[in-house]
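Objective 1b of the project was to move from sequence-level analysis to a structural picture of ligand recognition. The entry below was assembled by the postdoctoral researcher (A.K.) and checked by the PI before modelling. It contains the amino acid sequence of the target and the SMILES of the bound compound, pyridoxal-5'-phosphate.
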Amino acid sequence: MTNQKKITLTEAEIPEKWYNIVADMPNKPLPPLHPGTHEPIGPEMLAPLFPMELIRQEVSTDPWVTIPDEVRELYKIWRPTPMFRAYGLEKLLDTPAKIYYKYEGVSPAGSHKPNTAIPQAYYNKQEGVKRITTETGAGQWGSALSFACGLFGIECEVYMVRASYDGKPYRKMMMNTWGATVYPSPSDRTNAGRSILSQNPDSPGSLGIAISEAVELAMQDDHTKYALGSVLNHVLMHQTVIGLESITQMEKAGDMPDIIVAPFGGGSNFAGIGFPFLRHNLTEGKKIRCIAAGPTSCPKLTRGVFRYDLGDTMGMTPLLPMYTLGHNFIPAPIHAGGLRYHGAGAIVSQLLKDGLIEAQSVNQLECFEAGIKFARTEGIIPAPEANHAIATVIREANRAKEEGVSKTILFNLCGHGHFDMGAYDQYLSGKLVEHEVTQAEILESLAELDTPLIA
Ligand SMILES: *Cc1c(COP(=O)(O)O)cnc(C)c1O
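Corresponding predicted holo structure:
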């Protein structure tokens, strides 16, 4: 046991392989279905959208996939990322719990998203793709992909949810600086966008609409593919570099977590830190608790249903087995833009159904209160998404205190909040309100689904 504050690794300790949890899952994730026929789809149906190597990874059951040398070299721009012991927060909470955090905000884009953006751009480049389209909500995924495409000389076209395009101009400028073109969504460049605009010229947009636009463009052009920043199996796998590094760091600290917490949008950073530890549960009978922390305004894991649902608004994506609130669910405009997705990935959904992971929901006032405690004791100003994890960590640390037991808690500080100061300002000036979606709203959204139920 050391008293180290910062636990660092050398470049040689960047993982050489990603971990694919599918290999060790007792029940494998269910297959995607065709949105029209409801039959399982084969890899060939995904070929217009993704390069073959990513499709192979999407359906792979191999436990380990080698990280290409070129990707590992680029990871060195910001990896390995540091881990810290939160002595300041522990002291404030007066808890017997030991709290560690892995900090992914040191990447050029300020979040964990480049961990998958770099390999996705790499495999597209390998297969001769000239242009990648994508959607972005708050702008974090769009920035990460713009950065990655810039490194590989691929054109990047980002459909940014109109409300964020207007409200977060600096994220757009960042994408432009890395060479990407950014359009507000809905746009007049696609059938999906034009159809929404004809009904509502002032539509603020949504992630589901922006996905429909980006997918439509990729389907139309042989040289254009599409990229997604969360939810899919290959994305979750790329993020496991976070947890694999964390295992080495915890070993260096002479400790091991009893509890792991990560914020939850589509599941990628949660999977990234959690799955390499969960592997020890699945293969060695360890009992590490992995908790996904989401918002009460979009509580798919705690109050959604497990069934097949679409990934987008217009029905252009396959049906995925997921915990969902319904693909037409429009979450309240809370500040954790990255957590406002109606569903969860197939792997995470299956793990939750099987009781192998846990989920909690936190309202935004508790989140910002936690984030400010963290900023004032540890220094780093967290992304609003990360505040969901910090609030959950504080709950668990307080519980440890009540029960008089020492627990070791590790959480993922998935990004910094430097582009979210408007939200902090609103909290500090007392303008943020609690938001909890009503049962009637959830039932109404779910009633619109006509997709297959899962037994
Ligand atoms: C995108 C994002 C999230 C949510 O996405 P996941 O796939 O669930 O990780 C959370 N935090 C930050 C900082 C993000 O950029």
